[in-house]
Amino acid sequence: MRKLEKQAQSEKVFELYQAILKLKNLGETSRFFRDLLTIEEIDEISRRWQVAQMLIKEIPYLEIEKETGMSSVTISRINYWLHHGMGGYKLMLSRLGLMKEK
Known about the structure:
InterPro entries: Trp_repress (IPR000831), Trp_repressor/repl_initiator (IPR010921), TrpR-like_sf (IPR038116), YecD_YerC (IPR013368). The chain is mostly helical. Helices cover about 75% and strands about 0% of the residues. The longest helix is centred in the N-terminal third of the chain and has 19 residues, at about 5-20.
């Protein structure tokens, strides 16, 4: 992808983030995401979030696989981003009171 295409793409992503920030409540958020994404895409995202919550509780991969239907490769990727990513998972887990105290 050329530099201008990447810049335009990042601007579009930024615009999406800005739109999400304008949502005022759970109802608006639910309607927006249902219009934006397919049921399958929403399910995929919600299962990734479920995996992150299970990983922070130190639930074994096999149990996570059984409960979520996610592959060990996907679980491993989520675990990587949970511990070495940009901090987004940990930020939200903390705000929701799901992070373990150390």
